[in-house]
Write a structure and sequence with these properties.
MetI-like fold; 261 residues; 2 strands; mainly alpha; two-stranded antiparallel sheet
Length: 261
């Protein structure tokens, strides 16, 4: 039977408007926690991918002390286990649906870990919210890793040489010269990732997180209306994402203003 939008169905939702209010709180809090976890994880992954750890480097030289041109030992000498693990993580997480990752984390990993069952803010279930944050953070970390790595690699290598000529260590060069410029370049992309997370967080309702889509399901069950709650949810997501996108664009223009001088 086809659904028809009726004004009276909107009035039926008024007693349940608090569910949408709680859903907005959960969605925003989930997105903020995801960005923080994803950013910290991305820093770790970026460091691993850009590391120069090669434990089999000695295999590049043969018994006569000459550098090998080709062969298995030459390839093995270039192997970087940290970079390999980080690359594998990024590629797997970016190549699989986020809803599958959430299901694996919740029904797989956290079925073995007993989380405390309590509510904070009076309505957010920790044992559902925390696995959702972990899964979303792991997914976001894979994407943010590539953003941060590309931002660091976009800095001119000549600046590193200049830092060395001034006597700066590699850590000082990264902290005072490379990182500030990289953050300026990638900040808009990180902010856009926050907008993407707000929208993607809708899939966490599948594991019982009380977000906006969970409110839609609850209201649908109570009022037997589907389209009207979905339209309200659409409007809420738009009100969250559109102003945020415009605010990001504004700060991006402000940051680029100094580059045009």
């Amino acid at each position: 039977m086809s659904q028809i939008i009726q004004v009276k169905n909107f009035s039926k939702m008024l007693p349940y408007i608090q569910l949408f209010e709680q859903g907005v709180v959960v969605t925003v809090l989930l997105s903020l926690c995801t960005v923080v976890i994803g950013f910290l994880l991305a820093l770790l992954l970026t460091g691993m991918r850009m590391s120069n750890l090669r434990p089999f480097r000695f295999l590049a030289v043969d018994r006569n002390g000459r550098l090998r041109d080709r062969g298995f030992l030459r390839s093995l000498s270039r192997f970087n286990p940290l970079s390999f693990l980080a690359t594998a993580y990024v590629e797997i997480l970016r190549s699989t649906p986020v809803i599958v990752q959430i299901a694996v984390i919740y029904y797989g990993v956290f079925s073995l870990i007993k989380l405390p069952s309590f509510r904070f803010f009076g309505f957010i279930k920790f044992d559902r919210f925390f696995p959702g944050v972990v899964a979303m953070g792991m997914n976001s970390g894979a994407y943010l890793c590539e953003i941060i790595r590309s931002g660091i690699q976009s800095i001119d290598g000549g600046q590193t040489e200049a830092a060395r000529s001034l006597g700066l260590t590699q850590g000082q060069n990264f902290r005072y010269i490379i990182l500030p410029q990289a953050i300026k370049n990638i900040l808009p992309a990180i902010a856009n990732e926050f907008v993407v997370i707000i929208k993607e967080s809708a899939v966490t309702y599948t594991i019982g997180v009380q977000d906006i889509m969970a409110a839609v399901n609850s209201i649908r069950s109570a009022t037997f209306s589907l389209l009207e709650p979905l339209l309200v949810a659409t409007a809420i997501y738009f009100c969250l994402c559109f102003p945020t996108s415009k605010l990001i664009a504004y700060f991006e223009r402000r940051m680029r203003r100094g580059d045009k001088r």
